[in-house]
Amino acid sequence: MAMALLPALVLAAIPHGAAACEARITRSGGTLVFDGCISADAAEVFVGALRQPTRDVVVRSTGGAVGPALDMAEALAASGAALTVAGWCASSCANYLLTAAAVSRVPAEAAIVFHGDAGITWQQLQAPGQPPLPPPARAAIEALVTREQAFQTRYPRAADVHRRQAAMLHPAGASLADLGAPDCSGHGRTTWRPSAGLLLRLGLVDEVPATGAAAPAAGPALPAEVSPLGAAAPGDAVDPGEACPVLRGPAARQTPQTPEMPQTPPAPGSAAGAGAPPEPAALSGAR
């Protein structure tokens, strides 16, 4: 598929907190491009943009906050737009956006990275030796986990990813070898990075376009690690032996553009996710 070098409308370039969590959202005709970290501000712009007729969404993201990612995923599903990964989709991008899209396309060279979900983090926070959480934080996390469980019920692919991660993190009856993908240990959590071909065989994505079909055009260098908060972390002091590379090589120095893709008729209208209280630091971007 050839690149469609059409003029793009820049909807937002959003810094959020630390410089590591930024997003750029652009539109070219019926295609919406999301490039960066998922935050509440970025999700608000993304959900608003999906209220316009949208045929395709192109995403490159290392993840971000769980609640805003759920908002984006629910709006994406309601829009009926197809999702194409340009480069990588990790953490909350993989957990929610990839699994909720009506049609998902992952080029063979793309990196898809899973490393747990809100429910798993909640279990870790309740483990012996962990300090007790203040009641408001506990209530907020429980509400978020309940919302995530409802999301997994509504979107079976999300539940399947959760099941595979649970088997991976608690391998009583399964191992990473059984799941058919190598792992790397990043920041104290096991990470699952299946190939696009494996995701297709497992039924977790719909299409694997030919290499380069959604290749980004040249652009600025970007960090290539997933931080504990699921966002790019160029300044973090990371033990190289514990780091899990998202993507290296030429694609790490590129920025997504608008690829030409098969037309997928959009569903009329879109819906944003329900409002939720601010996430505690323990879960904000933890996916």
From TrEMBL:
Residues 1-20 form the signal peptide. Residues 232-243, 269-287 have a biased composition (Low complexity). The keyword Signal applies. The keyword Glycoprotein does not apply. Keywords: Signal. InterPro entries: ClpP/crotonase-like_dom_sf. Residues 232-287 are annotated as: Disordered. It comes from the Bacteria. This is Periplasmic protein. It comes from Piscinibacter sakaiensis.
